[in-house]
Amino acid sequence: MPILETRDVSKSYGTGDAAVAALRGVSTIINAGDFVAIMGPSGSGKSTLLTILGGVETPTSGQVLLEDADIAQLSDDERTKLRRRRIGFIFQSFNLLPNLSAVENVALPMELDGKSRAESQKLAIAALDLVEMSHRQKHLPAQLSGGEQQRVAIARALAINPAILLADEPTGNLDSRQSDRVTKLLTDLVTQRNQTIVMVTHDPSVATIAGRILKIRDGAIEYDGPTEEAQLSPDHAIARPTIRVHGAARQ
Amino acid sequence: MALGQFSIREVVARPLRAILTISSIAIGVGAVVAVLLSIETTRQTQRDMLRAVSGKADLEVISDGANGFPYSVLADIRKADGVEVAVPSLQRFAKLFHSDGDARTQVIGIDPRIDQQVRDYDISEGTQLKKLTDVVLDASFAKSLKISVGDEIKLLAAGGLKKFNVVGFATPRASSAISLGGAAYLVLPAAESAFASKSTIDQVQLIVQPGSKTEDVKEALAQILPEGVTIQIPRTRSQMAEETMFATENGLRMSIAFAVLICAFIIYNTFQMAVGERRRQIGILRAIGATKRQVGWMILREAIGISVFAAALGCLLGLYGAEIISDAMEKMTQVTLPGGKITWQPFAIAVGIGVVVSLVGAILPARRASSVHPIEAIRAIETSHNQEVITATFRASLIAFAIGLVLLFAAINGYLPLGGDVVALVVLLLAIVLLIPSILSSISKLLVACMRPWLGVESELARRQLTQHVGRSALTIGVLFIAISTTTGMAGNVLDNVKNVRDWYTRAIIGDFFVRSTNPDISTGAAADMPADIEAKLNQVAGVEFIDAIRYVSARSGENSILVVVRNFVGKPTDFFDLVEGTPDEAVEGLRNGKVVVGTVLTQRLGLHKGDKIPLETKLGTRELEIAATTNEYFAGGLTVYLHSETALELLDVSGVDAYVIQADDNRLAEVEKQLQVICQENHIILQSYIEVVDFINNKVNGIIASLWMLLALGCVIAAMGLINTLTMNIIEQTREIGMLRVIAMTRSQVRRMIFSQALLLGVIGLVPGALAGVFVSYVISLSAFSILGHNVVFEMRYGLIIGCLVLGMFIVLLASLLPAERAARLKIASALHYE
After folding, report:
1. Closest chain B residue to the Cα of A157, Cα to Cα
2. Which long-range contacts (CB under 8 A, 24 or more apart) does B612-617 make?
3. Among partner residues B457, B467, B737, which is closest to A112 by beta-carbon distance?
4. B704 touching A, CB under 8 A?
5. Which residues does chain A have within 8 Å of residue B736's beta carbon, measured at their own beta carbons?
6. 83-102 in B: which are within 8 Å (CB) of A?
7. Contact A76/B747, CB-based, under 8 Å?
8. Closest CA to A79 of A105, A57, A95
9. B833/A99 Cβ within 8 A
């Protein structure tokens, strides 16, 4: 079942001669339970695509349908409400509020959405439990390791029970041990909760955990298909997967 | 050079921050220039007047009474050893008529052959005096009256109305024009005739021979001078005028201090932010070889560059502000200030203050920048200094409290000079401000607990942001606290004093009509003499019950220049004084028996009370006069002694009249007024009804109030700038966080609400205790007024004023947050997420 669909989405910055096309006619469908890795060289338009998928930015032309609602047609407030109810974001640099504890960070989007403090806290603790961070719920971000901060950020994204999780280089700031733990967590979310995830990454070894690769070059989709086929592409050598999901065999 | 370019690009890259900083410094410097320029102009005018009148004299001989001393004394003075030149003069007020109207003038009768040896002026147009009908006018005075050389004027004084030809203009040599009613020079015999004061002079200016000691000459002359004539080193005769202006100047100085404080805060805030934002860049500079010193200097150079540019703008603003303040001063002092008078000193001081304050404000951020470790910066690790700030400010607060309380005790009990109470209050307010970092967390928690039901989780986010930067938040709260406490404190005090003034004149100025030749000087009461035959004409008016003549005489009591008010005290005893000690009957009975009634400012200064004796320099030497009562008094700054005319004639050789108070039959007031109008018109003198006199005083009081409100408004503007600066800085610093909040959950209106919540928290924490502190300020000033005025200015709790200031303050706070809130709400999410 399609969760998110783009139809001929283009995005350009600037006007006239100075206009730069970041995306050109991107069309794709992301189904429930998909784990999609967006890859491509720097400046190819990966992050722009992710921000447009999440309704942070609007396309210059084309449609972005999240559960059949055209994000591009919504007002700023409507997009914000859609984000806080249906989309979970995970950032490379975690983006936790430094002056809020782990549980407060996780509860914040729900409180902003009008849920009571008690209910928000309860859901936040449950989300922290899911990422095995409930024992550190009172800690401030500065008191947590990078991996722990990212798991709190994932809990924040999950707490709202989103239709889709958008992750921008989620392991980019982590060492290999912490990176493995985060990738395993993401994998478990897909396999155990049928969570839809779209992840931008530079790291081929991280990309292998996804069941599907979406390669972008110069703002256009160069490849959209299973991870295994992408491995055969001479331009993008992908390390041998250790874990693969969404229809791929596990090793 | 490379670092210089880097700095310039950094400033240009953040135009909003640069504009806020520059405008804040410019307003601060502008306020300093405006206030200093107007004070300097007023003071300089008074000094010029003195220089023109007393000039280059080493010594001056003056009369203790109002009628001067015989011309023959001059011959004795000239014979004395060590006297090089002795120049006589006769100085009285008169009314000047010209083709377009009239004005009060100080007539100076001189000997034109030798006068310029002691008085420092040039004849800038026309010629020096030659004939009895010649008059030389002060150039700026003549210009303001549109009088030209060759015109004819008339002078009205005790000798009647006399014509004179304007033959020249005098310009003080050292700097600008004379005022205080303007000066008109006549040859001495012509002045004697004008004032019906035959063979009499008021002053002799002396120059001591080279090689002789001034003190020796003074002592020698003191031996030969007759009773009632004093020799002294020339001193500011405008002392009384300066004392009456003391409160206003004090207020102006407080506003300067406030403006400078805000400047320092804004500069500190700006550069602290600049260093915080550029931490990574500074780390890179350090990594590639910039030394700590180079990095520190880079920040300081930026501060100097910005402050010099802003100070230049501030000077222009200050010129405009000075015009407004000078206008208010003119109204208050009745002194015609010369227009366009600009000295360089205020600009130099203001620019100096601007640059020094900028450096002081930038020193800590520069140190912070130079201490950035390359590795630490590149990893973007932010170290919190909150605990250090809290500990340091708490200790400083305790010390400031201790000092402030000691100073306050000393001020209230009169152990400190004038203005000591202001210093004590400033220290105490500073102590409270220093306490803010220690209590910010708990107070803000309490407030958020109350606000949360209405403002939601945004209020909690706002609180966290404020407590994350304790130092900066405390500074902003401190600015608001000081702004409102000084506003409510000073406003309360002004209103208390105004009430006191109104109580005074409703009790002390009673009469149906007042007749005088010119409006009196508010500091000395002096007006032009009236024609000698007026009293007889007034007495003939049908319906007049009685007439009381008033004469104001400058005299001395010990070291104090005082004003002696001489009258007959005809009428009801309750109609003359606003008594502090003694009853009306005791006062009037005492005056008739040769006693005196004394203004409480003077009794307080001399430590005297009812029944004590006060020294008075008279023509018979120093006399000790018993005090029958003490009275609240505002003429001559309260340095006033009331004498019955019989006593005054005996002691001071008083003649002439400054004003008549007329009491009429209540049923014939209109009839009396009509007759008086005819007499006054015929004799070119002023008739005022009681209502008109009250209006006259009210206008003066309202002028003072208006200028003080204007200063307070300036304080509000500066405080608002500080707040906009802080909130904007907060938002710049929160850019990334706001971007993230917008991505995950926050609508634009929620962002706005968060910023409003920050403003609200800052406002409530700063304004509510500030308003209460203002009440305390007002109360303490009223207490310490006793040591100056000798009576209590009754303190009144004004709930309306407090609530009004609070509402206005909160309105300004919320208004100031509009721009930053909108800026935050409109942040582009994608770029905000990558903001560093």
Report:
1. B744
2. B614/B557, B614/B641, B615/B557, B615/B558, B616/B555, B616/B556, B616/B557, B616/B564, B616/B641, B616/B651, B617/B64, B617/B228, B617/B230, B617/B555, B617/B556, B617/B557
3. B457
4. no
5. 95
6. none
7. yes
8. A57
9. no
- Helix, strand or coil, per DSSP, at residue B390: helix
Residue type, B737: E
Residues B314-365: tens digit of each pLDDT: 888 887 777 776 666 565 554 444 444 566 777 777 778 777 877 777 787 7
Which amino acid is present at B816?
A
List residues in chain A touching B: CB distance below 8 A.
51, 54, 56-57, 76-77, 80-81, 83-84, 89, 91, 95, 97-100, 108-109, 111-113, 117, 156-157
CA torsion sign, A110 to A111 to A116 to A121? Answer: positive
Q: Which CA distances in Å does B358 have to A213, B465, B477, B478?
A: 57, 26, 20, 19
Q: Is the pLDDT of residue B188 over 60?
A: yes
Whole-angstrom Cα distance, residue A246 to residue A227? Answer: 10
List of chain A residues whose C-beta atoms are within 8 Å of the C-beta of residue B742: 56, 80
| Pair B361, B286: CB distance under 8 Å | no
CB of B287 within 8 Å of any CB in chain A? no
N- to C-terminal Cα separation, chain A: 27
A-facing residues of B in 381-420 (CB < 8 A) are: 382
State the Cα–Cα distance between residues B701 and B709, nearest whole angstrom.
Answer: 12
Phi, psi (rounded to 5 degrees) for A120: -60, -40
What residues of chain B lie within 8 A of the CB of A113, using their CB? Answer: 745
Helix (H, G, I), strand (E, B) or coil at B760: helix
* Lowest mean pLDDT segment, chosen from A219-223, B300-304, B650-654: B650-654
Distance from CA of A156 to the nearest CA of B (A): 9
Strands B621-632 and B596-599: parallel
Report CB contact under 8 Å: A108, B745.
Answer: yes
Q: Kindly indicate the confidence band of residue B223, based on its pLDDT and cuts at 50, 70 and 90.
A: confident
CA-to-CA distance for B439 and B443, rounded, in angstroms? Answer: 6
Which of A23, A75, A95 is most worth mutating to test chain B (most B CB atoms within 10 A of its CB)? Answer: A95
Instruction: Compute how many other C-beta atoms are within 10 angstroms of the C-beta atom of residue B93.
Output: 24
Q: Which residues of A touch B836 (CB under 8 A)?
A: none
**B378–A contact, CB cutoff 8 A:** no
Is pLDDT at A216 greater than 80 in this prediction?
Answer: yes
Could you give the CA distance from residue B98 to residue B104 in angstroms, rounded to a whole number?
11
B525 vs B508: CA distance, rounded Å: 14
Instruction: Determine whether the interchain pair A109/B833 forms a contact, defined as Cβ–Cβ distance below 8 Å.
Output: no
Angstrom distance (rounded) from CA B288 to CA B285: 5
- Run of H or E residues at B96: strand B83-98
pLDDT digits (tens, 9 = 90+) for B312-322: 888 888 877 77
The three-state secondary structure class of A19 is: coil
Confidence band for B265, pLDDT divided at 50, 70 and 90: low
Q: What is the pTM of this model?
A: 0.65
- Arithmetic mean of pLDDT over chain B: 78
d(CA B76, CA B83): 11
Strand pairing report for B203-208 and B640-644: unpaired
